[in-house]
Specification:
Helix content: 10-25%
Radius of gyration: 28 Å
Strand order of the largest sheet: 2-1-4-3-5-6-7
Pfam family, one: HET
Organism: Tetrapyrgos nigripes
Protein name: HET-domain-containing protein
InterPro entries: DUF8212 (IPR058525), HET (IPR010730)
Number of domains: 4
Distance between the termini: 77 Å
């Protein structure tokens, strides 16, 4: 049995994929696969798996069985599944597992992500696919399960392969908000604390404390879980642990939700949940060298002790009658290289509190370094995680190469250059390639119907695709090449538990409507717009009920206090206007009335318009949106390109106005769309 020598002091339990027994490993942990999934009804627990009759009687047994079947098919004798490998009845074992879980996923040879609510019928970038909507992408614990493993394969509800993290990295980046560089091998420790926190901002956990516990491995810290302490307290403890090992001030670059800021008008410098980092995806790590030996900070019973440059603002700006200051966090946003500042109010001596916690002010000027002060902001030694081993640590000398049904027209032939390698037939569509003494070998494939041919070459443990004199290889587990006929061949490799690798060959016709999704990078929007889900008025705030965004925005988000939507600049190669819309429509309901707010790009200007419908109107969001197209009745409003619009509420004396403009506060996107009720 092939084994890994894992540098970990924790005891690991693994499930045998053949007889379903659980075994403890103290040292010499065997090579294993690992399952990432979302919990559903009747999961098989550690206690259940001790008695197979009980385990097999539960609904969750089907998931355990198919995970083991998949692993066994790829020659893994062992698999780790959290539901039945963690003894949750032992608080000590649970604590050990929670603090070791990132390591478990990082050390796994292969991670299977089972998406029980996804059909693999369509490519994940296809608008008909429900891949993006999977609840797996919204769960807290699955964040580390996406980031930690070296190899990840996504499986649909029928346990069929959808793709890998590498081959789907564009769409996974869009769904999660995680930069695609992470999925191409960049170490997550190179990202700021604020950026990593932002990746968890829109994720949920069943137990509130898990919003903190699920991030332990991502920040390389440990702490004892105390279920019952509450989500806020657990998240505060997490930040204190991060502060012990990091001097990155971006941990303070968070924005409270407006409703929370109104309810609790004074705060400290620590956030209360990952959601408060929802605007921080562009915040870079702080440059603490600017204050040299004053860069360290500490936390004790009277608050956070920290050195920050302070900048006084006009005395007319007051909070509860007291003057306030701008404190520079010494970090920048990639959006315009702006510098981040927060509002602090001095209470006494060196004691401060944070006010206007729903704002992080962006300035174009670097902080003044002539007034760095020691502050105490009141609040109501571990080394970096080891760097993952490179791919060369995986020594592969045996490949199983299978033609999928779409490629059955091709026949394998020995490659005349592979003198020292050996090719043997397994069945009509599958061959085994054994590399020779030089760790290289190849198989040629010829079509029985066309003149198409290609080679699959395996050199130094990595497969490549050759078509004619063109080589397609490099990093990643999926490669795509264009054949002489104009059709395409795609190869996808996947590790197995016996030091072998499986290569699947797929044939894609040139008229396949999804071919463009595989061959081209995902186009990113040109502009993002944020709008608060509050209808502001002179004397009160009223919640708007947001019905949705049209056309549906895969890059957009709708949360408890705001909506975010994106638009594109027109491009001559756009296949149709719906694909890359230059404007969108937000549809609300207020006091029973449909209310639409349109916004978009017109030339170099941003524009907005408001449409209030009567109770008897039958216009849908789509028909309102289409009315702004070139020959629609509202096209003139779009062509004017005005950033302000208003409309009268039917039956009410008020006007609804919309204003879109750039903002100098930290937020999602570059523009803020504000909807107001005017008397």
């Amino acid at each position: 049995m092939s084994r890994l020598n894992l540098d970990t002091s924790s005891v690991m339990r693994l499930l045998n994929t053949k007889d379903f027994t659980v075994k403890q490993f103290f040292t010499d942990t065997p090579r294993y696969a690992i399952l990432s999934h979302t919990w559903e009804q009747e999961e098989v627990t550690f206690q259940d798996i001790q008695n197979l009759d009980i385990a097999q009687s539960k609904a969750g047994w089907r998931k355990v069985f198919h995970a083991c079947l998949r692993a066994r098919r790829y020659h893994f004798d062992w698999i780790w599944i959290d539901s039945c490998c963690i003894n949750k009845e032992s608080s000590a074992k649970l604590s050990e597992a929670l603090n070791s879980m990132y390591q478990y996923y990082e050390d796994a040879a292969m991670c299977y992500v089972y998406l029980s609510d996804v059909s693999g019928e369509y490519h994940p970038e296809n608008e008909k696919s429900n891949f993006r909507d999977s609840r797996w992408f919204r769960r807290g614990w699955t964040l580390q399960e996406l980031l930690a493993p070296e190899y990840v394969v996504f499986l649909d509800k029928g346990w069929k392969r959808i793709g890998t993290r590498w081959s789907l990295r564009d769409v996974v980046s869009v769904v999660t908000g995680i930069p695609v560089d992470v999925f191409e091998g960049r170490i997550i420790d190179e990202y700021s604390v604020a950026q990593r926190m932002s990746w968890a901002a829109f994720r949920e956990t069943t137990r509130p404390e898990d919003q903190a516990y699920c991030l332990l491995g991502i920040f390389g810290v440990s702490m004892s879980p105390i279920y019952g302490e509450g989500g806020v307290k657990a998240f505060m403890r997490l930040q204190q642990e991060i502060i012990r090992i990091s001097d990155d001030h971006s941990i303070f670059a968070w924005v409270a939700a407006p409703a929370s800021a109104r309810k609790d008008k004074t705060r400290g410098l620590l956030a209360r949940s990952p959601y408060e980092f929802r605007m921080s995806g562009d915040v870079q790590a702080s440059n603490v060298e600017l204050i040299s030996n004053k860069s360290s900070y500490s936390f004790n019973n009277n608050g956070l002790h920290i050195h920050l440059p302070l900048h006084s603002i006009p005395s007319s700006s007051k909070h509860f009658g007291e003057p306030i200051f701008l404190a520079h966090l010494l970090c920048q946003s990639t959006r315009g290289s702006s510098h981040l500042t927060v509002y602090l109010q001095k209470t006494s001596g060196h004691q401060y509190i944070r006010c206007y916690a729903d704002k992080v002010f962006l300035t174009s000027s670097p902080p003044p370094m002539d007034d760095v002060q020691e502050l105490i902001v009141t609040e109501h030694l571990i080394t970096k995680r080891r760097v993952r081993a490179s791919n060369t640590s995986w020594s592969t000398s045996q490949y199983e190469i299978e033609l999928l049904q779409s490629a059955w027209d091709f026949l394998p032939q020995p490659d005349r250059y592979s003198t020292f390698s050996k090719i043997s037939s397994i069945d009509e569509h599958t061959v085994s390639l054994s590399l020779g003494i030089y760790k290289e070998g190849a198989v040629q494939y010829w079509s029985r119907k066309t003149e198409d041919y290609f080679r699959i070459a395996c050199i130094n443990g990595r497969p490549s695709l050759s078509i004619g004199d063109k080589w397609i290889g490099g990093p990643g587990d999926t490669h795509l090449g264009k054949l002489k006929s104009g059709n395409y061949i795609m190869i996808a490799s996947e590790r197995r538990g016996n030091s072998q690798e499986k290569i699947d060959i797929c044939y894609l016709a040139k008229d396949n409507p999804e071919i463009r999704l595989w061959i081209g990078p995902l186009r990113l929007p040109d502009l993002g717009v944020m709008v608060h889900s509050m209808l502001s008025a002179d004397s009160y705030d009223s919640h708007l009920e947001l019905q949705g965004i049209f056309p549906p925005d895969p890059f957009g988000r709708i949360t408890q206090d705001m909506a975010y939507a994106t638009i594109f600049r027109p491009h001559p190669n756009d296949p149709k206007e719906h694909s890359y819309p230059t404007f969108r429509l937000l549809t609300y309901r207020w006091s029973g009335l449909p209310l639409h707010v349109a916004f978009g790009l017109q030339g170099s200007s941003v524009w907005t318009d408001v449409v209030v419908q009567g109770p008897s109107s039958h216009e849908t969001s789509e028909s309102v949106w289409k009315s702004y197209l070139d020959f629609g009745p509202r096209a003139g409003k779009r062509l004017k390109g005005e950033g302000f619009a208003e409309a009268k509420l039917m039956g009410y004396p008020q006007l609804v106005s919309a204003v879109i403009k750039s903002t100098n506060n930290l937020q999602l996107g570059d523009y803020l769309l504000r909807v107001e009720l005017k008397r």
